[in-house]
């Protein structure tokens, strides 16, 4: 808005003719000021009404920069132990289950600990199923692709529970098939999540989110390959090592899930 300057009374310094001439000049100046004000008002009105995208270019860029600064501050927030503890239960269940997968996978390597590893795997799968079930219910009507991804995770966990319990009593082809199917569902679930990526705007995606998606993708891929290797006795030890590596990737993904949740919530 233009600021109108006050005009002093000059009738004491000028005669009537001069006064009349002065008033005409003032009227003309006021007219030009009002005209300019009208033009300015119209421009503001058009810009605020968003009739022309070009008129909002600077405003849009400013808003984008402000949003980027805000997002940057949010994702640079320091995460404390208290923040992690205050996360929802499903986050804790998911993280603990992935850590148990590491232990169970390591136990598979030693015959004396094999059954214990199967039990640990069953417990971890049950906790993972609970976590993904809660998450699926949350995004059911919001994000379809993520919902389908969680459904695949749930199916994979359920098959893992079946296979882990079965392996406590028998070690045959059916046991291996259950682990292949479970791992395959994990892989497909991760692929569903990848569909959320806009490759044209990949630079705008926070690196924490990329780490979560990539950890789940490669973790599922490694699990699938390792499960197939269980068919070959001479590759059994290598398969166990791959399971440990895949579990570590899953654990890494769940840790960054914590970070993302904290920085977006608290």
TrEMBL record:
Q: What is this protein called?
A: YrhK domain-containing protein
Q: Does the keyword Amino-acid biosynthesis apply?
A: no
Q: Which residues form the YrhK domain?
A: 214-259
Spans through the membrane:
91-108, 114-135, 147-167, 173-197, 209-232, 238-260
For this UniProt record, give its keywords in alphabetical order, as a comma-separated list. Membrane, Transmembrane, Transmembrane helix
Respond yes or no to whether keyword Zinc-finger is given for this record. Answer: no
């Amino acid at each position: 808005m233009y600021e109108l300057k006050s005009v002093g009374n000059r009738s004491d310094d000028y005669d009537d003719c001069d006064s009349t001439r002065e008033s005409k000049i003032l009227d003309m100046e006021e007219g030009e000021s009002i005209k300019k004000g009208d033009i300015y008002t119209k421009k503001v009105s058009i810009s605020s009404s968003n009739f022309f995208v070009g008129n909002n270019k600077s405003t849009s860029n400013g808003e984008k920069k402000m949003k980027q600064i805000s997002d940057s501050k949010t994702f640079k927030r320091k995460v404390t132990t208290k923040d992690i503890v205050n996360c929802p239960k499903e986050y804790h269940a998911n993280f603990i289950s992935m850590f148990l997968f590491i232990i169970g996978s390591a136990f598979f390597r030693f015959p004396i600990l094999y059954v214990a590893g199967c039990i640990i795997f069953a417990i971890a799968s049950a906790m993972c199923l609970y976590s993904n079930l809660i998450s699926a219910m949350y995004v059911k009507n919001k994000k379809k692709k993520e919902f389908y991804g969680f459904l695949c995770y749930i199916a994979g966990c359920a098959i893992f529970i079946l296979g882990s319990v079965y392996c406590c009593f028998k070690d045959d082809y059916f046991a291996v098939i259950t682990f292949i199917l479970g791992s395959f569902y994990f892989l497909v679930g991760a692929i569903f999540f990848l569909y959320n990526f806009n490759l044209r705007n990949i630079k705008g995606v926070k690196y924490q989110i990329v780490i979560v998606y990539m950890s789940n993708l490669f973790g599922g891929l490694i699990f699938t390959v390792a499960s197939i290797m269980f068919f070959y006795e001479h590759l059994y030890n290598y398969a166990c090592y791959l399971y440990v590596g895949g579990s570590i990737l899953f654990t890494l993904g769940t840790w960054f899930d914590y970070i993302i949740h904290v920085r977006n919530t608290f």
